[in-house]
From TrEMBL, chains A, B:
One of its GO terms (molecular function) is (S)-2-haloacid dehalogenase activity. Catalyzes the hydrolytic dehalogenation of small (S)-2-haloalkanoic acids to yield the corresponding (R)-2-hydroxyalkanoic acids. This is (S)-2-haloacid dehalogenase. The keyword ATP-binding does not apply.
Amino acid sequence: MPSPQALFFDVFGTCVDWRSAVEALVSQMVREKGCQIDSFAFADAWRARYQPAMQEIRAGRRSYADLDVLHRENLDATLREFGLTDRFDVHDRADLNKAWEKLTPWPDTVAGLSRLKSRFIIAPCSNGSIALMTRLSKFGNLPWDCILGAGLARAYKPDPQAYLRSCAALQLDPAEVMMVAAHNDDLAAARNAGLQTCFIPRTIEYGPDQTTDLRAESDWEIVARDLEDLALHLAC
Amino acid sequence: MPSPQALFFDVFGTCVDWRSAVEALVSQMVREKGCQIDSFAFADAWRARYQPAMQEIRAGRRSYADLDVLHRENLDATLREFGLTDRFDVHDRADLNKAWEKLTPWPDTVAGLSRLKSRFIIAPCSNGSIALMTRLSKFGNLPWDCILGAGLARAYKPDPQAYLRSCAALQLDPAEVMMVAAHNDDLAAARNAGLQTCFIPRTIEYGPDQTTDLRAESDWEIVARDLEDLALHLAC
């Protein structure tokens, strides 16, 4: 395996814990309004609309829109689903949508990325917009060299263009880049696009009862425990 | 003046000293080949082809090409101009073109940017490609939050789209962004696009006999001595 020049990272789930932060803000806002709901169920329901919304764009039925726009539309639908439509005005919804900019990194993320940055170009290759990735990374001190991914490519993973246009922005061949993710389907798409791959398990991304992506499901070039362990694998 | 949310920076000349580094590599390579030329004159001649090359694209006579490609073409022309065509093969030319990835920051740049980063989103809005800005910034430890500018916008400053598409990538109005540059014409274009402006003099960018951009030529919102002084102006 030739050493990669750059490492691309999935972000939601792989670098940051989206579920806890989204649940915490939902819980706080709902409590302030005197309502009672299962705020973890709300976070999961909001996130469950993520792939179907992107699929409209991947399938060509809708032109590219930043993930912030999709998150906001999905929030409206989730509030309806939970009978909260009348309780959240336009300002509340804008505030709640910003939950996605304030997600906490996993304990190994910042230390691991900092070590990996010493030898490699490191960049998110996420479905988040450039605006969202920038603010989220500033919030969590994620030390990227640049921000790539869907916002740049105007294509959502697993569309190969999301990976290929990100490689092209660095003037690298796909084989010179390694995709790091906690999701086997993301890695399968990256491999199909010609990238090297690394799996990191994040077994509580979806809570304690998670059943998917508990382990590597293919012969990815590297399987590491977390991002600090990946730094060890890559001699950083 | 409302406080900006993000600061955009010109890079060549404003954040880094391109002339010294390019001259040093030219001088070294020419010496190794046993040739004698004025390496500062070579650096200046190479750079003099920068605006005319971009103008072909701004004027619509050529489709967008990354600055690395223009630099490489301009290098061929400059080698011809100095009678060195036969002395630099394709590998030498590739090596020499990489001079633009290894430019030294001015003494105040890293400290100033680091302070400004504590309160603002900071990003290059340069004519350099994403690849070039990423490698240059890694070389000089420039702590950007993201990389914007021509490579993202596929338009060269002073085309308004270079500024406007960079603002849009952050989901900010132009008035929420301040352009920081050592070049009055860059600031004039940024102001026309609706951005706030800050002038920083870099009076030796073109060497000790520089005659242009020695001072602010309009009522820019801020005129600062250097990037650390700008941090003071903005209470960072």
